[in-house]
Design goal:
CATH class of the largest domain: Alpha Beta
Strand order of the largest sheet: 2-1-3-4-5-6
Mean pLDDT: 89
Shape: elongated
CATH architecture of the largest domain: 3-Layer(aba) Sandwich
Strand content: 5-15%
CATH superfamily of the largest domain: Response regulator
Structural class: alpha/beta
CATH topology of the largest domain: Rossmann fold
Radius of gyration: 20 Å
Helix content: 40-55%
Number of strands: 6
Number of domains: 2
Length: 211
């Protein structure tokens, strides 16, 4: 038996709602002698269920998944499967997502454009205790800076993001329409947007909304 075969393999959970991508990544990582794909998931809740059952060493989580995103799953894993190290991959990372990911406990944050070989290296690194952040995603987060929005402005922009009217937003937020207009006007001014819908789009693109 070779030395590689004698060493315990790292147990990996893959979670991505794009089945073709997940299957391809699983097949490529399975070629690594020291990695074992113990479970695959297509949604946030399924990823948590699989993690509870299989107790993986590392969870590779897509940022955007149905039911719960990678950041929410990462936060839940810290409590429910604390021995599992989580890392997040994304096809379209927004600056605010990086800060949210790190706050949730993620040890890695990288784009889906990374090669399978590099992904395997990062899996090993984060399991060993290293943190990996893609340099380009980090640079984008730094250039975007922190959100200038208050928590109330974020709340109302999230309600406005789906095209709701001021009256609907006011009703959902239990505020007067005039108060809602003032908050949304303030948010739009801070973001240099001409209206609440553009402000919501800008805030979403920068990762400052939870949507």
């Amino acid at each position: 038996m070779s030395q590689a075969e004698e060493q315990p393999r790292l147990r990996v959970l893959l979670a991505d709602d794009e089945h073709l991508i997940r299957g391809a990544v699983a097949a490529l990582l399975a070629l690594e002698q020291d990695l074992e794909i113990v479970a695959e998931a297509a949604s946030g809740p399924e990823a948590l269920a699989m993690a509870r059952t299989h107790r993986p060493d590392v969870a590779v989580l897509d940022l955007n998944m149905p039911g719960a995103d990678g950041i929410e799953v990462t936060a839940a894993l810290r409590t429910e499967v604390p021995e599992c190290t989580a890392m997040i991959v994304t096809g379209h990372g927004r600056p605010g997502n990086l800060k949210q990911a790190l706050a949730s406990g993620a040890r890695g944050f990288l784009p889906k454009t990374v090669s399978a070989q590099r992904l395997a290296e990062i899996i090993r690194a984060v399991h060993a205790g290293t943190r990996y952040i893609d340099p380009e995603l980090a640079a984008d987060a730094i250039s975007a800076g922190d959100s200038p929005l208050t928590s109330r402005e974020v709340e109302l922009l999230e309600l406005a993001a789906d095209g709701a009217s001021v009256a609907e937003i006011a009703r959902n937020a239990s505020l007067a329409p005039g108060t809602v207009r003032n908050y949304l006007s303030s948010a739009a001014s801070k973001l240099g947007a001409e209206n609440r819908h553009t402000a919501a789009r800008i805030a979403r693109e920068r990762g400052w909304l939870s949507l």
